[in-house]
Amino acid sequence: MDLFRPSNQPPAADAIRENYIDGLLDEIRRLKTQVASQSASTSTCAPLDDVTSTTTTTAIPSQDTSYTSNREVLSTPTSANPGDNEEPTAMAAAAAAEEAAAAAAGTVAPATATLEVKPWFINANVFRTPILIGEVADAAFSTRFRQVISDPYAPQPRHMLRVNYAPDAELMALVKSSDVAWPTPSRSRFLVEVALKYVARRYHVVRRSAVMRDLEQSIHNPSWGDLMLRSKLWALFAIGELYSTRSIPSEKDFPGMPYFAKASRVLGVLDERPGTDSIEIMLLLSFYSLALNRRYSAFVMSGTAMRMAIVMGLHLNIPESQLRDPDLREHRKRLFWTTYIFDRIWASKLGHPTAIQDSDVGVDLPSEASSDDAVAAARTYAADFEDTAYHVASLRLAALITKTVRSIYGQRGQGEATTLSTRVQQALKDLRADKPPLLTLSTKKCAILATRPILLHILRTQVASWPSATTTTTPETQVPASAITLSEACIRCARHSIRLLTDSWIDGSFATFDYFYTQYLFSALTILAASSLLQDSHGAVGGAGAPNDDKEAFEESVRFLSQLRDAGNFAAQEYCHHVDVMRAELDRFYAKRTGRLEAEQPQQQEQASSYGGVPPPPSHGPGPEPESGPLMTSQFGLGGGLPVRAGAGPTTAGMALTEPSLEELLAQPVLDLQFLEASFYDDLQALYWPDFS
User: Fold this and answer.
1) Residue 32 to residues 53, 347, 418: CA-CA distances in angstroms?
2) What is the pLDDT of residue 499?
3) Radius of gyration of the chain (CA)
4) 334 and 455 housed in the same domain
5) 67-70 contacts: CB < 8 A, separation 24 or more?
6) Are 101 and 248 part of one and the same domain?
7) Rounded to an integer, what distance in angstroms lies between the CA atom of residue 390 and that of residue 368?
8) Which residues, 6 or more positions from 454, have their beta carbon under 8 angstroms from its beta carbon?
9) How many helices, marked H, and strands, marked E, lie in the chain?
10) Do the domain assignments include residue 439?
11) CB 543 within 8 A of CB 131
12) In sequence order, which residues have a C-beta less than 8 Å from that of residue 429 and are 6 or more positions away?
């Protein structure tokens, strides 16, 4: 597998991969030895080389297994021994040895899908610790998508390793280095201005007036300031260089990384009594860590910042009698809410719990300057505390995203009675009721998170209904109209997100190394890849033009992502690995479907001749005709094809959540989505994937 690795990455990654392969070979030998010992206990005449003739306890699908059951076995880790924690992806060679053993023996252990979550671990002799990947992660969804369209009788696609991020060793070397010089006065002013523009327009982390005052002090007196203040400026320099750079020359470090390393020295000793400076630095470092694609580090830092805020009591209102300065009180409030946003958004990207519950928060929302303030004070207030409405909308959306992730992707409790259908419906109702007008991309992302499990399972239902190599008829699939409407909303959001990102690239507002825009791009193009399979000659799910519109948009988005990868964007490099294997799976899928259709064409023409040249009606097989009304049917061509309502047009801004059919659907008391309830939870496992983190 070709890895896109930045030129400044040390060759230690090659050694890691060699150790990984060596560990896999050791695991294969261990499995063979284990099987051999089991064989010896039942038959003393079986030689060691005949280990593949014994029966293993691992559930492996046989070639006679039906498509559905085979897919369930591949999706769900099972083991005959509850005490075993074997790696379900104990890689291709080990899996092949076990499969050969089961096939030779002629017996296969029964595989039963269960609602009990069985974590997947990797062998400790390869990695230091298992790495958990939540289903809510975009990379995990792309893996699920590949698994759905893959050959059910071939080895199941595995999750891609994340190797594109700034390595620990390189950062430690920069921390210890004394070669990083304080920038010149003009350069330092420029970098701070850039950082404040890109950070302050999204979040409130620092007060502009205080930062500019500290910067001028440091320029006129280089020895001025303690470690905390200088670390804050180092962190701002790093962010400023990140957003002012368009690409990385091959011989250069990632933009801002030396400054980031210098700022990280403050992490060596945590303050026993943290102040606002400590929280500000932690948030700035967390924000920059995402650009390095160090998502776990960013999550840990945001959680640490939240705990510092709790220690300071920022989550509660402080009486005016104890803090007279209104600007300081407002800064405390806004700093807490920014920490709240970081904590929730970062956690939602990984599927992890947050550091504080809403019931523990007692601080007021950000507020505007009072009308009786003096003119000069009001001007300073406006510079330090920008767009209050935007920040309030951001924190409300962060809370809504957390609620959506918990409700749809969280594990079910024993006594929980609400269904997935109800929770998806409620999530979309909340989003529609509280949708902030200034956070379009984030709102679209939340809607995609809520609806893409339904899109994925509709695709799985249709793939399962397509004829196999041994069948000659194309069955008709019934999909609830409510599921189709939700899938349309998901696809419309993805299309609109791509258009917004493309426009931002054209007008220059798409920063090359911005983590969020890169993630939005990958999330949306994965939905377009799925949508391209749900198209037929009548058009696409969600309206819109020619049959190949989404396929072409997917390819164009991939080229867009490749440009970011080539510029040195760590996240784009990771996502391009997923895109490469996704495209390979799509090519195999299209080739397989095209071959079947070409083979079926003569028979279809012969059948058509018996109807006077008119194509024959679809065959429903034995039994009554499918019901109309709540169920809609479609006969699949190459692209699969969901039914398309007449009059569906192109997507416009805000259309996905306000389209009349979706509003009517959300007004219904109960959605008809029972067809995917069981399958969703059978596949919603806590995944432990190999990762070089």
Assistant:
1) 11, 40, 45
2) 95
3) 28
4) no
5) 67/152, 67/464, 67/468, 68/464, 69/111, 70/152, 70/153
6) no
7) 12
8) 424, 483, 486, 487, 490, 673, 676
9) 23, 6
10) yes
11) no
12) 666
pLDDT value at residue 358 = 94
CB burial of residue 146 (10 Å; 0-12, 13-18, 19+):
buried
| pTM score, whole prediction | 0.73
Question: Residue 477: enclosing H or E segment and its boundaries?
Answer: strand 477-480
Half-sphere exposure of 481 toward its Cβ, with a 13 Å CA cutoff? 15
Domain final position from 359, 381, 401: 401
Where does residue 539 fall: left (phi above 0), alpha (psi -120 to 50 degrees), or beta otherwise?
left
SS3 category, 116: coil
Q: Is residue 282 part of a domain?
A: yes
Whether residue 340 lies inside any domain: the answer is yes
Rounded to 10 degrees, the C-alpha dihedral 514/518/521/525 comes to: 170
Beta bridge partner(s), residue 477: 634
Residues 562 and 683 in one domain: yes
Q: Establish how many alpha carbons lie within 13 A of residue 95's alpha carbon, considering only the half-sphere containing its beta carbon.
A: 18
The residue among 401, 436, 459 that closes a domain is 401
Cβ–Cβ under 8 Å, residues 483 and 169: no
Token digits for 492?
């419309």
Q: Measured between alpha carbons, how far is 73 from 534 in angstroms, rounded to an integer?
A: 25
Close Cβ partners of 96 (under 8 Å, ≥ 6 residues apart): 155
Structure tokens at 398: 């962060």
Query: 424 and 383 in one domain?
Result: no
Tokens of 389: 């409405």
Separation CA 206–CA 285 (nearest Å) = 13
* Sequence-ordered list of residues with C-beta below 8 angstroms from that of 208, at least 6 positions apart, any chain: 196, 200, 383, 384
Contacts of 336 (CB under 8 A, 6+ apart): 309, 314, 315, 363
What does the DSSP 8-state code read for residue 630? S
Distance, in Å, from the CA atom of 192 to the CA atom of 654, rounded to the nearest integer, reads 35
8-state DSSP, 440: H
Report the alpha-carbon distance of residue 77 to residue 427 in Å, rounded: 30
Residues 395 and 415 occupy one common structural domain: no
Q: Tokens for 534, please give them.
A: 């749900």
Burial annotation 499-514 (CB, 10 A radius, 16+ → b, else e): bbbbebbeeeebbbbb
For residue 316, list its beta bridge partners: 362
Residue type at position 313: G
Instruction: Tell whether 275 and 335 lie within a shared domain.
Output: yes
Query: CB under 8 Å, gap of 24 or more: what pairs does 152-155 form?
Result: 152/61, 152/67, 152/70, 152/71, 152/74, 153/61, 153/63, 153/70, 155/92, 155/95, 155/96
- End-to-end alpha-carbon separation of the chain, Å? 18
Q: How far apart are CA 575 and CA 138, in angstroms?
A: 9
Q: Quick one: which of 365, 359, 370 has its CA closest to 336? A: 365
Q: Are residues 389 and 420 in the same domain?
A: no
* Domain membership flag for residue 146: no
116 and 176 co-located in one domain: no
Considering its fold, how many domains does the chain have in total?
3
pLDDT mean for each 10 residues of the chain (693 residues):
45 58 76 65 40 36 38 36 37 45 41 36 50 86 92 84 89 86 95 93 93 94 86 97 90 90 88 94 98 96 98 95 93 98 96 94 88 58 83 94 89 60 80 77 92 90 70 61 86 94 93 96 97 63 57 95 96 96 91 64 46 38 37 36 41 51 58 52 42 33
CB atoms within 10 A of CB 650: 14
Kind plus residue range of the DSSP H or E element containing 447 = helix 440-465
Q: Phi and psi of 515, rounded to 5°? A: -70, -40
CB burial readout 344-362, b (16+ within 10 A) else e: bbbbbbbbbebbbeeeeee
Segments forming the whole domain that contains residue 173: 168-401
